[in-house]
Amino acid sequence: MTDRETIVSRLSMLRAEMKRAGIDVYLMTTSDCHASEYVGDRFKVVEYFTGCTSDNVVLVIDATGAYLWTDGRYFISAQGELEGTGVRLMRSGEKGVPTVGKFLQDTLHDGMVLGFDGRCVNADTGAGYRRIAASRHCRIEGRADLPSKIWIDRPNLPQNPVTILPDSLAGESFESKLDKVREKFLEAGASYLFLSKLDDIMWLTNLRGRDIQCNPVALSYALIGRSTFDLFIQDEVVTDTLSLWAREKRIKLHDYHDLYDYLQDYHFEGPVMVCNSATNDSLVHLLREKTQVINHQNPTEMLKAVKNAVEIENSKKFYLLDSAQVCRFIYRIKKAVAAGEDVTEISAAANIDALRAEIPGFMELSFPTISAFGANAAMAHYAPTEESCSRVDAPGMLLVDSGGQYMGATTDETRTIVFGEVSQKMKRDFTLVAVSNLALMNAVFAKGTTGTQLDAIAREPLARYGLDFNHGTGHGIGYILNVHEGPQRIGRPRRNAEDPAMEAGMITSDEPGIYREGEYGIRTESITLCVPAATTEFGEFLKFEPLTYIPIDLDAIDPAYMTDTDLLRLNEYHAMVREKISPLLDGEERAWLEEATRPVSRV
Amino acid sequence: MTDRETIVSRLSMLRAEMKRAGIDVYLMTTSDCHASEYVGDRFKVVEYFTGCTSDNVVLVIDATGAYLWTDGRYFISAQGELEGTGVRLMRSGEKGVPTVGKFLQDTLHDGMVLGFDGRCVNADTGAGYRRIAASRHCRIEGRADLPSKIWIDRPNLPQNPVTILPDSLAGESFESKLDKVREKFLEAGASYLFLSKLDDIMWLTNLRGRDIQCNPVALSYALIGRSTFDLFIQDEVVTDTLSLWAREKRIKLHDYHDLYDYLQDYHFEGPVMVCNSATNDSLVHLLREKTQVINHQNPTEMLKAVKNAVEIENSKKFYLLDSAQVCRFIYRIKKAVAAGEDVTEISAAANIDALRAEIPGFMELSFPTISAFGANAAMAHYAPTEESCSRVDAPGMLLVDSGGQYMGATTDETRTIVFGEVSQKMKRDFTLVAVSNLALMNAVFAKGTTGTQLDAIAREPLARYGLDFNHGTGHGIGYILNVHEGPQRIGRPRRNAEDPAMEAGMITSDEPGIYREGEYGIRTESITLCVPAATTEFGEFLKFEPLTYIPIDLDAIDPAYMTDTDLLRLNEYHAMVREKISPLLDGEERAWLEEATRPVSRV
């Protein structure tokens, strides 16, 4: 962690640079040039200037203050990280906390200049800032990369090898995907599609990279025409194999860094489709100068979200292997803690990471393992460090959220592991989280039902007890790709956000939780596959089928908070876990699984 | 009903008028000049030209064809009404059926003219037509009132007396409401608010009229400035009392018919707020010529939806009286049918209407009673006529959807009454509708939860059995006002439609159903009041409390399709019905209620 003095000094250097550049208010986000959710070290500018490690952050600095917005997942950790830095935490969504937009509206006065690096702000957000600035009679300086002026040893872009997935592993050829994508953008009246979203480019090309930790993507852009395909990728990673592949696929390779010049000189023969929320502000502005821009969700999004038969089959296979390793992990850690062995959050994370690495086909983690004991687990995305690492001990609960990238799946799952006899309140909360998880898992719904609708089914059993949680209930998951993937999302309604219907073939998480600041945190996350339930005279119906088969810890289940239906669902789920995972375990571990998945009854 | 020959002849006269006016495609909707849901006879142009009595209709006529769009509630009835007329039924929302917009896009060619009466099309819809016409290089003729040229005896506007509600009945004075409304539109940057939505004007002024059957509204418009209030109402209905009232309230009265001239000459000193979806196309165009128009939901909408303490108290009182009469009705009709008496859909409707009229404070029905037996009930909004009236007989089910306007409430409720031993399939469907109704009624949810989210909770128990229904699950209800009122709505997500959060104080229906064409229809509708459930460290939570207390017919309840929770909910609801309604009944009726609300168990 960076010490407070360093932060204060970096911020004052930034203010000096602002002054020099004639910028009154400077804005930074944790975003790379591709509007990625996770970014490489080069783009961790907010962390560099504030010490805050949250993933979803906006920092606004003016002459006197610095304000950092983040969401509910990070309130607790950010509060700690910002202490003593003079940076004020703005808890997004909480009562009385203005949005960034509202704040800028109140802060900007006539003639002031708002600056940001347009390559690290998506075009939707950029347009919002422009509107606000205009309404306050202020100017925008959208090409101000001030961090680079101060951050001398700012990391360079990574240049890691690129892999070509065989069609047998991708389940669909590049050519076939390209046909579908072309049909979509031509149908919408565009002559071109410009892609900057890395996982969309990876899905379409069947390439995979390693340029962002845990996300198997290669830094790239793609410009697709009626019969052309220009792929921009760093020259340094282009091997003979990749060149040969590109020639075969009729893909023209360009250096990643030549994109802006190339577009500047390009003769567009019609409108280009771009997703403003997934493309940086500078690029959209450049494209707008060249041709008509059609703002549209990337057609790759929905095609990528609905998994093909091979993707589903491989995912099922790897989720079983992955679940079995998590079961082993739970067995071992429960035994170790019971035996009084020295177990910490970090040793637990190392343990599960090592077990995952044993699975043939393992590539890397799909995100840094969250291993959080006691009050640490109330921070939804806590990561232990050597300095702040709790010992795992009874009584208490350890929340482990982890997943892997395999040559055939991206996994993600959370279990909260119970040690010793925990309090009645913990049991109640734990049980209700399980009920919520199972309610969503067992939902049956008409085709057309959206993720925000399904969210109500998950939160209802908690609301009944005045409980809720401050994050989404479910996110889409990639196939050998990003662990967070759109467009589907199970969560509360968001203004102006897409809320697509759930479709058969989508892979989505189911992860309700309860977090009590200073006390404990509980989350139960299983991954689901959306499948057809029935087709009747009333229409088509869908349901979920679990991909994750890991016991929900019965040591904190109290049937008093469950209806008969809830109990039936829990027992049915555990029967499936037993049936599917037992054959993958042996001896003591298998015996433990039998016990851990025993039927629960009210008596 | 108009005979087929008349329809055919009227349509050919219309085509002749179209030719004369140089219009290639003419469009008609069932709308008055106020974008009302229900309209006076003058505006039933689609019925005049097609014989179709559906409420929500768009008719498009070109040189060779006529196409009528309506929604799922009317598919079955419209099909029958249109038979032999040459008008093609377009089932909105069904697979392969284009929207009106898509149809126009396909029909309009270069140079063609699309005509409609802009006073009877809301400005949002009008703008959509304009966009389509422009994209097809066609012209719009938005002031073409062709129906009046053919419909010689077209009814005039009604001119019925206006009532002033005392503040003690309205629960809030006009002045207090006006302050709140002014604050809202000034806050949004408007200097004026223009209202044409009749129930919004009635709510704000505390006036009530009788110009639309079942809707206690007076034809009117209002232009509200920073310190002015212009009310346009027909001179013929202005009494001395009303003039005096207006003077006291500093309201300037104008003749309803002077509106367009007045606006044409008005000097606007700032932007005017108008709700495009609730104001006709001609008016919005006129306002746009005069000043800047801010398209915004009427601020009256949300204020009106959240009922005040007096409105809630009176509603509770009248809903009990109303429920008691429906209980009497059910008791009597069950007895009559069992005794082999001659009961028809019409006699049943007359019976419930008469019972309602006995309640002190009764004004009129809140909508024409729906009394539908057997297969007729599969038409969600069926109304019996002398010619097509079924006898009510055992075994079978009678769906009665009815309500009243009282000097203290607007009511609405549906029960499906069971006669004799109905089939196992009917029992299953009936039970699942009850389960759905009770699931929504018992929902607990965080503040911020929207109607489309709650919809998933209602439909889930049906989806589990491959069942669904083709209408909304719930609508807001007025207070001595329209039986359908926004902005809240429990239903499937709609593109670009508002989906406001449910708020404490809202009165909303809960009315799932199952309709099997040619067989039977079931709907169970209770009205709910949204109330606080709890406030905890996790936020505020809301729930529903029933206003309707009428038994759900146990003769078709099969506990085999209910969970223990479902059974508990049914028994709890019936215990409340018994407790609240028994004191309002006597003798045999009371004894029947005891039996009709008996606890049900699985054995």
Describe the structure.
- The structure is a homodimer of 603-residue chains.
- The first copy, chain A, is α+β, with helices and mostly antiparallel strands and 603 residues long.
- A six-stranded mixed beta sheet of chain A has the order 4-3-2-1-5-6, with helices on both faces. In chain A, strands 12-11-10-8-13-14 form a six-stranded mixed beta sheet, sandwiched between helices. A four-stranded antiparallel beta sheet of chain A has the order 21-28-27-24.
- In chain A, helix 5 packs across helix 12 (281-290), helix 14 crosses helix 15 (345-357) and helix 16 crosses helix 18 (564-581).
- Chain A is globular and about 75 Å long.
- The model of chain A has no long low-confidence stretch (mean pLDDT 94).
- The A-B interface holds A 443-446, 448-450, 452-457, 459-460, 463-464, 466-469, 492-493, 499, 516, 533-539, 541, 563-565 and B 443-446, 448-450, 452-457, 459-460, 463-464, 466-469, 492-493, 499, 516, 533-539, 541, 563-565.
Topology diagram in text:
Two copies of one chain form a homodimer.
Chain A: H1 4-21, E1 25-29, H2 45-50, E2 57-61, E3 66-70, H3 75-82, E4 87-91, H4 100-107, E5 113-115, H5 123-135, E6 139-141, H6 147-150, E7 163-164, H7 167-170, H8 174-187, E8 192-195, H9 198-205, E9 207-208, E10 220-224, E11 229-233, H10 240-248, E12 252-255, H11 259-265, E13 272-274, H12 281-290, E14 293-295, H13 299-305, H14 309-338, H15 345-357, E15 362-365, E16 370-373, E17 396-402, E18 404-406, E19 409-410, E20 413-419, H16 424-441, E21 444-446, H17 451-463, E22 474-476, E23 485-490, E24 507-510, E25 513-516, E26 520-523, E27 526-536, E28 539-546, H18 564-581, H19 587-596
Parallel strand pairs in A: 1-5, 3-4, 5-6, 8-13, 11-12, 13-14
Antiparallel strand pairs in A: 1-2, 2-3, 7-9, 8-10, 10-11, 15-18, 16-17, 17-20, 18-19, 21-28, 22-23, 24-27, 25-26, 27-28
